[in-house]
Amino acid sequence: MNLVIKPALTAIALPLALCISLLQGCAYNTPSSAQPALDTPAEPAVDEHASAPEAKPTAEITPEPKAIPFEEVLKQDQAAQNNAATPPQAPAPKTVAPKKEKLPLNPSTPLRAPSRPPQTASVPKAQTPAVKPAITTKPNVETEQPAPAPAPTAPLEFTLDQLPITIQNTWLLSSNQTDCELRTIPVKMEDGAGKTILFLQLTQANWMIHTKSDIDLSYKDTGLFLDNGTHIQLETLVKDTNITISKKKKTLTDALMTADNVKVVLGFWPTWPVSEARTHTLSVAHFPQAFATWKTCNQLVGAR
């Protein structure tokens, strides 16, 4: 209650004090009318040549202070009370902007903001990995396919009592009292009138083409045609169904070392009309091993 009355009394007293001071000032400045008139002294003679008296400077008039309205006084008192009730707030800390890094100017690339450095998590010390040799890639170069491994040439182990034997399912080895014979596996061939047996046979004297049909040597373009390009012509007709090759025995033997197939072209009688020869292909693979086994067989027969 005292806090409310005290400011109100103060606000009323200030204007009253100002009014009293103003009234007192007016009383001192006004001359008293009751004071009797004094004898005025005679004015001195005016000298025409004398200079006019200097004008005295007038005193500066200070402006009077303005009265403060009562409502303004109340607002000031209320603001003072509010400031006393609330504690002063601490000034907010100033935020300092980080300095920007100067980027090198490169006319060929646009300016970009500096990227943040990558954050790496702390990891335990890793063991030193083994150094791997550098892998070098070779350019794609077309390389020639490796040549197939040569066929085995070593003879098979056997005894004469085991004969006949088959070699690589292609050749058949047999013997008699005087020598050994090596022949291809017999097959059936078309002779124009039916089927006939066909095989090649190697003896110590010659090569032979065996059939069971009559052969006609008048046909052209007949003989043995190997897949390596060798052509062996027919030589001698034996018993109408077989042909011997004696003159070209070594040539045929050497050619068979590098051949896999041989095409047999024969003409048969009677064939009507006489128009074309008959053809059949025989397998002669693995001849080097078969030939070596045949030579071993002849040695065993000669040693008996």
**Any low-confidence stretches, pLDDT <50, length ≥5?**
29-47, 55-59
Distance between the termini: 157 Å
**Alpha-beta content class:** alpha+beta
Number-wise, the strands total: 12
Principal-axes shape call: rod-shaped
Helix content: 10-25%
Question: Quick one: biggest sheet?
Answer: 8 strands, antiparallel
Q: N-to-C SSE series? A: HHEEEEEEEEEEHEEH
Percent strand equals: 15-25%
Radius of gyration: 72 Å
Mean pLDDT, as a whole number? 76
Per DSSP, the total helix count is: 4
Multimerization state: single chain
Polypeptide structure, described:
By secondary structure, the chain is α+β, with helices and mostly antiparallel strands. It has a domain at 183-289. The protein has helices spanning 2-29, 70-85, 249-256, 287-302, and strands at 165-167, 171-175, 180-184, 187-190, 195-202, 207-210, 223-226, 231-232, 236-238, 242-245, 261-266, 278-283. Strands 1, 2, 3, 4, 5, 6, 9 and 10 form an eight-stranded antiparallel beta sheet that branches. Strands 8-7-11-12 form a four-stranded antiparallel beta sheet, with helices on one face. Helix 1 packs across helix 2 (70-85). Residues 29-47 and 55-59 have low confidence and may be disordered.
In short:
The chain is α+β, with helices and mostly antiparallel strands and 304 residues long. It has four helices and twelve strands.
Give the helix/strand layout.
Elements: H1 2-29, H2 70-85, E1 165-167, E2 171-175, E3 180-184, E4 187-190, E5 195-202, E6 207-210, E7 223-226, E8 231-232, E9 236-238, E10 242-245, H3 249-256, E11 261-266, E12 278-283, H4 287-302
Antiparallel strand pairs: 1-2, 2-3, 3-5, 4-5, 5-6, 6-10, 7-8, 7-11, 9-10, 11-12
Helix pairs in contact: 1-2
